[in-house]
């Protein structure tokens, strides 16, 4: 019982959330409307806001393989999109090609048409006088991506939708190979069953004649063991050699 209490105390220290009480709440209705891109977002060119906003982040269709322009078709009044990717034409109220703004930078429609919809946070369409601040007569379409969001916190635990995070092992120092510490006073040391490899050394250096002297304990039982040497010459050429080591019984 004492050990059980100690184990529980240790577990609570490592996971304090287990000590919290769980309270089941009744159904809750959320009535607030999410602001896709705040008015003070630095990605807004000239600080412009007030256009028609299409929230891609909460659009199930945006997780498909469709492009942004394909999803905008028929969703914004006055916006006409025709053609097929990558050759698509865009007009707002028949007044010519609008300006395209990607995260605060003006770009061509070719760049916009290649962005997958699952990487977009929201799109804002400016019509008529709404687009006067941009200096164009054909309106403007502002595209905001998820990764350019200043509050984006994509990581290993919560990556951006559509992004696969892969961990690649980096460099680490070589670990020391375990060798039994035999006591010279023991005439019959116990067998060590933990490994079938007798000896391994990653830093063997030879002399000018290519020779090296190694010392290690053999196995307790007799038999024939394989010896493999791999290395690199001073010129960077790889080399490999193999042989056998015979261990005779007592």
UniProtKB/TrEMBL annotation:
The keyword Signal applies. Signal peptide: none annotated. Gene3D superfamilies: TonB-dependent receptor, plug domain (2.170.130.10). This is TonB-dependent receptor. The keyword rRNA-binding does not apply. Residues 61-138 form the TonB-dependent receptor plug domain. InterPro entries: Plug_dom (IPR012910), Plug_dom_sf (IPR037066), TonB-dep_rcpt-like (IPR039426). Keywords: Receptor, Signal.
């Amino acid at each position: 019982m004492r050990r059980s209490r100690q184990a529980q105390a240790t577990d609570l220290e490592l996971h304090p959330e287990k000590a919290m009480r769980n309270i089941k709440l009744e159904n809750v209705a959320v009535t607030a409307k999410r602001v896709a891109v705040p008015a003070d977002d630095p990605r807004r060119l000239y600080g412009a806001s007030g256009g028609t906003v299409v929230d891609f982040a909460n659009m199930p269709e945006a997780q498909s393989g469709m492009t942004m322009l394909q999803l905008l078709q028929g969703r914004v009044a006055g916006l006409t999109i025709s053609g097929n990717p990558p050759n698509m034409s865009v007009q707002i109220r028949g007044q010519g090609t609008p300006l395209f703004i990607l995260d605060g930078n003006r770009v061509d429609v070719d760049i916009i048409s290649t962005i997958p919809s699952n990487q977009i946070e929201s799109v804002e369409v400016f019509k008529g006088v709404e687009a006067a601040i941009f200096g164009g007569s054909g309106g403007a379409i502002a595209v905001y991506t998820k990764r350019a969001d200043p509050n984006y916190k994509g990581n290993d635990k919560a990556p951006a939708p559509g992004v696969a995070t892969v961990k690649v092992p980096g460099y680490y120092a070589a670990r020391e190979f375990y060798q039994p510490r035999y006591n010279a006073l023991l005439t019959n040391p116990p067998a060590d069953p933990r490994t079938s490899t007798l000896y391994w050394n990653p830093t063997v250096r030879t002399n000018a004649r290519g020779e090296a002297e190694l010392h290690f304990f053999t196995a307790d039982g007799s038999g024939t063991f394989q010896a493999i040497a791999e290395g690199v010459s001073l010129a960077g050429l790889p080399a490999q050699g193999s042989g056998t080591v015979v261990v005779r019984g007592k």
